[in-house]
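Bumping my old thread because nobody answered last time. Still need a sequence for this structure:
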């Protein structure tokens, strides 16, 4: 039986926490008198908290003392955590459970590869934590995507060679990281943004069971 490794990003792939990040960053930007739009929020997908705040400050042409920078990052995270505290399994994106169940039936190893430091909390809230054989998140990595580190650690954690892994990603940096790790990249989102992925689907409802089994058998 063929064994492949299936690695999932979290935000925007399994659940849509992007909206909560957006609300928290928007409030932070507003407190600094900076306009922050949904387009700009797109550019923060898969980007670390430090880099995100640096980008927001650059867009607003502002510089702040280091102590305030640290304070704002903590405040943003607290606010984000208050949003995700109320999450439940209704927040799982359509057809993600179907794909996870199929992979479990086929006895394929499943790993999470996410930049989020809150990944375990979120998976617990939406009752999916037990579906994963390994969880690699922002606490386990030192390099942010597009560096492939998170996916390479995720592959190692399930004992599968990188070239036998398939990654589901919704961010430009994440797809680039999967490609750099020599893995098959499946972009979840628009072809316009994720054209560099091996395959692109708008969401999991477009991914058939046959397509998944063909990835396993290939």
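Sorry it took so long. Here it is:
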């Amino acid at each position: 039986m063929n064994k492949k490794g299936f690695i999932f990003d979290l935000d925007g792939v399994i659940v849509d926490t992007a909206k909560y990040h957006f609300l928290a960053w928007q409030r932070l930007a507003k407190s600094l008198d900076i306009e922050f739009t949904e387009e700009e929020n797109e550019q923060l997908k898969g980007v670390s908290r430090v880099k995100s705040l640096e980008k927001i400050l650059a867009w607003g042409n502002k510089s702040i003392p280091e102590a305030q920078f640290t304070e704002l990052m903590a405040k943003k995270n607290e606010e984000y955590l208050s949003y995700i505290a109320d999450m439940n399994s209704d927040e799982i994106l359509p057809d993600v459970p179907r794909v996870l169940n199929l992979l479990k039936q086929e006895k394929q190893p499943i790993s999470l590869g996410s930049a989020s430091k809150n990944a375990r909390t979120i998976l617990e809230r939406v009752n999916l934590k037990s579906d994963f054989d390994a969880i690699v998140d922002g606490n386990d990595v030192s390099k942010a995507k597009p560096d492939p580190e998170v996916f390479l650690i995720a592959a190692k954690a399930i004992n599968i060679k990188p070239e036998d892994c398939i990654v589901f990603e919704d961010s430009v940096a994440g797809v680039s990281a999967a490609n750099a790790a020599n893995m098959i990249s499946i972009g979840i989102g628009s072809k316009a943004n994720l054209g560099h992925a091996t395959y692109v689907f708008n969401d999991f409802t477009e991914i058939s069971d046959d397509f998944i089994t063909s990835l396993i058998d290939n």
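Residues 32 and 62 are 8 Å apart (CA to CA). Let me know if any region looks off to you.
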